[in-house]
Amino acid sequence: MPTSADRLTALRERLAVASHLSQASALLSWDQSTHMPPGGAEARGRQMATLARLGHQHLTDPALVEMVDALESDGLEGDERALVRETRRVLDRALKMPPDLVAAMTRQRVRGRQVWERARREDDFAAFAPELRTMIGLTREQAAALNDEAPAYDVLHDLYERGSSAARVEAVFGPLRDDIVDLARAIRESDVRPDTSVLRRDFPEAAQEAFAVETVRAMGYDFERGRIDRTAHPFATTIGPGDVRITTRYQRNFLPSALFGTIHEAGHGMYNQNLPAEHADTPLGSSVSLAIHESQSRLWENLIGRSRAFWEGAYPRLQAAFPGTLDDVPLVAFVAAVNDVRPSLIRVEADEVTYHLHVMLRFELERALVEGALDVADLPGAWNEKSRELLGIEPSDDRDGCLQDVHWSWGMFGYFPTYSLGTLASVQLWEAMARDLGDLEGLVRAARFAPILEWLVEHVHRHGSRFAPEELLERATGGPLSAEPYLRYVRAKYGALYRLA
Ligand code: ZN
Fold first, then answer.
1. Per-residue DSSP letters for 106-165?
2. Span from the CA of 423 to the centroid of ligand 1 (angstroms)
3. pLDDT tens string 175-200
4. CA of 260 to the centre of ligand 1 (A)
């Protein structure tokens, strides 16, 4: 008779195969975004569909299901118990998904993304609309297959943020929306107008890259186990336990794009680089949710990268990186410029305050699309209307409107709210960290990032999926997710920057 230890060994071996298949797929996807010529798209779609099908077959093998059934009655404790629990989650999901649907979604992702890229470039929503319609149909099928008793949007959102729901998102967004609109209005009515033109001077790409690399290396992103490449839409991806890559894009006449984008992705990368090595290649060794992931990227990007303390330390180095370019810009003016708050059209370039309004817009529209309350043909108009309502401005074309994000082309509905939930969590973690470490500003000013990263590893990274997102946050911060720390932070920071009463 095999013992429970034998079964655990066999389970880990099987999970490793599934993990290797998905890592191979991640590498193909990384290549698609960074190096692949356009002609490779069709074949790449088939290759990734094959890997997805093999992974699905492997996970739904009855022998694996029997193994998990047996392990569940073995009375395991601690990490072994958590490993079996997490495996069950993955198995359940795989067993409920028909293989044809998995393959169809994978093919449509690749196709939809290629069409989206061209449609966005040429501002041609009509070209993308049929792909979007097909993808919405497939995601509805996916939601029904996974759980036909819950609302489709909740099922999809749960894929990214387990335990969360549209109702929970609404409960957080409701009060947040009013407070942000009030704060944004007070900022607009203040006399302070940062001069953001200083960020649009000539910043040669090679110097931008050198500065960004030096910055994220100092923060703790490990280049022995990572690398940075260029792409149209920045992301972080894990190819293997020792290979966590990030991508970025450089704009010669807009410094913040690559600078804060690289810090953001490095924040994601550091989370993945510090997941528990002993559980690599298992669901327990994976990051727990997208909101928790985003809390890491936002913490490094905003709470550190956009803080006055950070630039008190780093600004002379930045000035030296672009000789003569910023000599006439005092530190205080530069800090004001990188924290300029104003309604804008592009989510990924939005400031910390209005960012949530971009997310709320997408949350409302994608929910309506999934529920069938909004037809794809009406999306551009609905987008523009919502943009006027929330941000007070309207895009002049779809490129800066409903075509700006990759997510829907990739079938990711229910994903956007995690950006805001993660941002709120980042400030909650920062407050908890300050209680433990004391003077965080002093550490940031001195570029002493090691204690900060160690705290995050200790309270977040090393746990992998040991705890559900809410429990992880409670353990790390002493309370459930709340918008209050975030609101305290933006009121204090922007109250001072904009000299608000
Ligand atoms: Zn992110």
1. HHHHHHHHHHHHHHHHTT-HHHHHHHHHHHHHHHHHHHHHH-SSS-HHHHHHHHHSTT--
2. 10
3. 899 999 999 999 999 999 999 999 99
4. 11
